[in-house]
Amino acid sequence: MAMDSGVHIPVMLKEVLDYLNLKKEGIYIDCTFGKGEEYLKEMGVQEIDGILFDLGLSSDQLAEERRGFSYRLNSPLDMRISEETKLRAEEIINNYPCEKLADIFYHYGEERKARAIARKICY
């Protein structure tokens, strides 16, 4: 997926449309950028026939040094998927209690060694 000023630009549109089993008069929503619900409300749509989600990070986000996703680059630990989000990973790592870090690693990262990793960071 390519991003340009916050606007989602589909890069595999033809392939996705060829793969999906679309109804000619169906209503579909692309939730890749998270604005789908707003558009449905604005258009008065109450039922949809399908939803397409892209739940991964984009290569643009990973490659941009200032975004702080890479462990290979010497950049601030940011890791915000949306730059509108105020809280950065650096603030979490440096200020959250060890127990809360462990919970984050376990619940969101499904990391079995969450407690040990959190202890290494905290102590």
From TrEMBL:
Gene Ontology CC terms: cytoplasm
SUPFAM superfamilies to which the protein is assigned, alphabetical: Putative methyltransferase TM0872, insert domain, S-adenosyl-L-methionine-dependent methyltransferases
InterPro entries linked: RsmH (IPR002903), SAM-dep_MeTrfase_MraW_recog (IPR023397), SAM-dependent_MTases_sf (IPR029063)
GO MF, any single term: rRNA (cytosine-N4-)-methyltransferase activity
Keyword list, A-Z: Methyltransferase, S-adenosyl-L-methionine, Transferase
One Pfam family hit: Methyltransf_5
Family: Belongs to the methyltransferase superfamily. RsmH family.
PANTHER family for this protein: 12S RRNA N4-METHYLCYTIDINE METHYLTRANSFERASE (PTHR11265:SF0), S-ADENOSYL-METHYLTRANSFERASE MRAW (PTHR11265)
Protein name: 4925_t:CDS:1
Organism in which the protein naturally occurs: Paraglomus brasilianum
